[in-house]
Automatic annotation (TrEMBL):
Highest taxon above the source species: Bacteria
Protein name: DUF2255 family protein
Pfam families referenced in this protein's UniProt entry, alphabetically: DUF2255
Amino acid sequence: MSTWNSDELDRIATADELRVAPRRSDGTFRRPTTIWVVRDRDDLYVRSWRGVQGSWWRTAHDTHEGRISAGGVDAEVPFVEVTDPRVNDQVDAAYRTKYGHYSGYVEPMVADDARATTLRLTPRS
């Protein structure tokens, strides 16, 4: 598995928003959707605010591939599903720390519906 270099990791993690374009089953990319991204140690994570009903997430879940853009970094990525409750707890904390000033929006991002959609972003090797 590839890892982000420190510059990419910092630039993506400090960006307020990330644009995600999951690859469809026919190989084309969906139109980019603007979402939040958080960092825990050397990993980057995203979630669907709408839970499993989020259309970008459903495509990402089906193909596990896509393209992201944030902080001046553009990369193709595999989407790795996260099911470990401890990792999800750390991702919750990262969302609260980074986006806590958006009180009406951060709570849905740490609710069970959104936790069920947690994806780790790794650079394509």
